[in-house]
Amino acid sequence: MSCPFLREQPVAEGARIIRRAFQINRVLRDRQDPLAQRESVIVERYRFSREGVIYIINLLEPHIKCSTRRSRALTTAQTVCIALRFFASGTFLYTIGDAENLVKSAVCRAIRKVYLALKQFLGVFVVFPSHLRPQVVKQNFFAIAGFPNVIGAIDCTHIPIKAPPGPNEGDFVNRKGVHSVNVQMVCDSMFHITNVEAKWPGSVHDSRIFRESHLCTLFERGDFDGILLGDRGYACRQYFMTPFPDPNPGPQTRYNAALARTRARIEMTFGQLKERFQCLKSLRAAPDRACDIIVACAILHNIATIRKERIPVVGVQPDDDLQPVHLDQPSGRAARDRIRSIKQRTQDTLYNSSFARI
């Protein structure tokens, strides 16, 4: 029989005492302001200056801002800085979580939220042939080695990923035996990425990626007045210049040298992109998510280049050394000979004008 002076049953009170004894208190750690650091620390950690990080925060805030602060949700600044830290370092998610006092799942959600928001700005920051006028792009390329009418340098680069499960795993193994995504990019002379195609497995050849890209369709349709520069792995077309396989001494050798110096811009762009965002050296992500991260890094690279952020130190990039898989088309050979003759006439004109001044 229960005591009439007690409001509740003794058994219920005892159960509450036991529950309190085994209850795990919820620990809400204090998260510091990610930008409350020295400028050098911010640049090293996020690859952007303080003003650059604030610009990205303001750009993405309408897309990633939490509607409430329930359960002490991450602020926009914290979400952006977590993603930038992952892009810059490429380290494990739990390592970033330990540094930011967060669990791994929260870090993963923050990164995914940021790169999906960045993808919405692809048409704003990645524009072909450039943000500049086409004539300015051609003049800047011509100033490098005297190669006329160039509006872009194109190439592909392999981004290593972890082996995906399923029957299509073999499609991602490239010629070096590494699982990767083959990414096609085009740049201008100012290292701005003007086109990116990130959806093909590593076993696909560069020439096929270009043939089936939207950019090739636009060139075949005649929408652009200019030419692209590629390596010998591509087929030479009227709008696509590649080097001579076995150049003869004289004009052909000078043509190859001018093309190599001008096309080096895309190799330098790849170097800056991978040094700025170390995650691109090895992505531990599924292929679809890896492609989204690659596009997000390309957009961030353009933002950093436009804002003149600090350029990372780039080491020597290995040559791709691809063998051509297509024979020269007649229209491509004729266009290449025409470019060589134009370059020769330009050099003769400059020589004659300088001789006349003397």
From TrEMBL:
Keywords: Cytoplasm, Hydrolase, Metal-binding, Nuclease, Nucleus. It is found in: Cytoplasm; Nucleus. The keyword Transcription does not apply. Its cofactor is a divalent metal cation. The keyword Metal-binding applies. Its main location: cytoplasm. Residues 154-302 form the DDE Tnp4 domain. GO terms for cellular component: cytoplasm; nucleus. GO terms for molecular function: hydrolase activity; metal ion binding; nuclease activity. InterPro entries: HARBI1-like (IPR045249), HARBI1_animal (IPR026103), HARBI1_dom (IPR027806). It comes from the Eukaryota. Transposase-derived protein that may have nuclease activity. Does not have transposase activity. Belongs to the HARBI1 family. This is Putative nuclease HARBI1.
